[in-house]
Amino acid sequence: MQITLSRWGNSLAVRIPAEIARNLSLEEGAQVECTATPAGTLELVPAGKEARADWMRRHFTQVNARLDGQAMTTPSAQLQREEERY
After folding, report:
1. Are 45 and 39 in contact (CB under 8 A)?
2. pLDDT per position as a tens digit, 28-56
3. DSSP string, 20-43
4. Which domains are delineated in the chain?
5. What distance in Å separates the CA atoms of residue 26 and residue 48, rounded to the nearest whole number?
6. What sign for the dihedral angle of Cα 11, 17, 20, 24?
7. Residue 24 near residue 18, CB atoms below 8 Å
8. How far, in Å, CA of 38 to CA of 43, rounded?
């Protein structure tokens, strides 16, 4: 989706379409993190989402490290299919 930047005082403003705002649960006055990426793109992230993503990344890294090296088992769905032979 392409949108047009508008002037707001000496700054430029990005207007977030209503559908996107609803999907992200954004309301007027909501805080967002704005970052210019090394790839030359603009990233807008609702405040708090970045922290949750970082926590999830750390959490699953710890879980994966704990499970690493454990023997893999056969998924229960596969066992059920084999028993039913369908």
Report:
1. no
2. 988 888 889 888 999 888 887 666 677 67
3. HHHHTT--TT--EEEEE-TTS-EE
4. 6-68 (2.10.260.10)
5. 12
6. positive
7. no
8. 11
